[in-house]
Amino acid sequence: MIFQIDNVLTQRSIDKILESLCSLDLWLDGRGTAKGRAKLAKVNLQADPKNAGVYSSLNEIKGALASNAMLKAIAFPAEFSRVLFSRYDIGMSYGTHVDAPYIDNTRSDLSFTLFLSDPENYDGGELVIERSGKEHRVKLSARSLIVYQSRTLHRVQQVT
């Protein structure tokens, strides 16, 4: 199961979110949220959810997701477990992994990636989802979302 949903956020929302994420001091080592072998594969940064601007932006995204008719029809989300902002600078990637089945005591059957940058703004960085022996390379426009099963092998290619 892989679903794409476009225009999850408005461009105004994206601009506001990106502005809240521009301070370099709010980015932490992404391995802090990884468990087991995923910790070895993860080379990225994640925005500190305790930062007021980050917290507000995460809530804006959760609100947009909760009200998205297509997502409601596909996933029937009861709640959203840990939503994170991940950043990949040049040379960063996230090797092949599956997402945790439980996050903060909440079962997480589905995962998603919401793209905040347009593909022409960076090289590499594709989300690669392995399914039925095939690789699906995903690099969507800003505001677009891809939903996939958490137990699906996936990775983020190195940003070049």
Question: If you had to describe this structure to a student in words, what would you say it looks like?
Answer:
The structure is a single chain. 22% of the residues lie in helices and 29% in strands. The chain has helices at 11-20, 38-41, 52-66, 69-75; strands spanning 2-5, 27-29, 42-43, 45-47, 86-87, 93-97, 102-103, 106-107, 110-114, 127-131, 134-138, 145-149, 154-156. The chain is globular, with a radius of gyration of 15 Å.
Features:
13 strands; 22% helix; 29% strand
User: What structural category arises from helix and sheet content?
Assistant: alpha+beta
The tally of strands reads 13
Unreliable residue runs: none
How do the SSEs run, as a string of H and E?
Answer: EHEHEEHHEEEEEEEEE
Compile the SSE list and pairings.
Blueprint: E1 2-5, H1 11-20, E2 27-29, H2 38-41, E3 42-43, E4 45-47, H3 52-66, H4 69-75, E5 86-87, E6 93-97, E7 102-103, E8 106-107, E9 110-114, E10 127-131, E11 134-138, E12 145-149, E13 154-156
Antiparallel strand pairs: 1-12, 2-4, 3-6, 4-5, 6-13, 7-8, 9-12, 10-11, 10-13
